[in-house]
Amino acid sequence: MKYNITPIAKPRMTRSDQWKKRKCVMQYWAFKDECKRQHLSFPPQGSRITFGLPMPASWSAKKRILMNRNPHQSKPDLDNLLKGLADAVYEDDSGISSYGGLAKVWAREGFIEIE
Question: How many whole angstroms separate alpha carbon 2 and alpha carbon 108?
């Protein structure tokens, strides 16, 4: 299942985020709300998850064609994207026992694909 949601890495949060309203934390809360709105879910075992991260607007059309669906090897880290998704979907993500595979790739628009 493919969801048209731009993945967001889970930020490190502190108690002061309750009143400071940092941009990264507000973006993460909006991401969680969008996951709930689109009823995003995945089983706790064997899911293959692909994160599609949008290409920068400054890239040329030629580079966009070359990089589409190629591995994304810069920030955000794959483990932080996974943490953000797991926390958005599960109240308690300790029940997740395995993943079938994980990937992050460049994409024209952000997405999360779950098989």
Answer: 14
Prediction pTM value:
0.88
The mean pLDDT values, 10 residues at a time, for the chain of 115 residues are 92 80 88 93 91 94 94 92 91 86 94 93
Rounded-to-integer distance, Cα 86 and Cα 54, Å: 20
pLDDT of residue 23: 85
CA distances from 112 to 13, 20, 61 (A): 23, 29, 23
Of 9, 4, 11, the C-alpha closest to 35 is: 4
Residue 114, phi then psi, degrees to nearest 5: -125, 125
Angstrom CA distances, 105 to 25, 81, 102, 112, stand at: 23, 12, 10, 10
Cα 71–chain centre separation? 15
Check if the beta carbon of residue 114 is closer than 8 Å to that of residue 81.
no
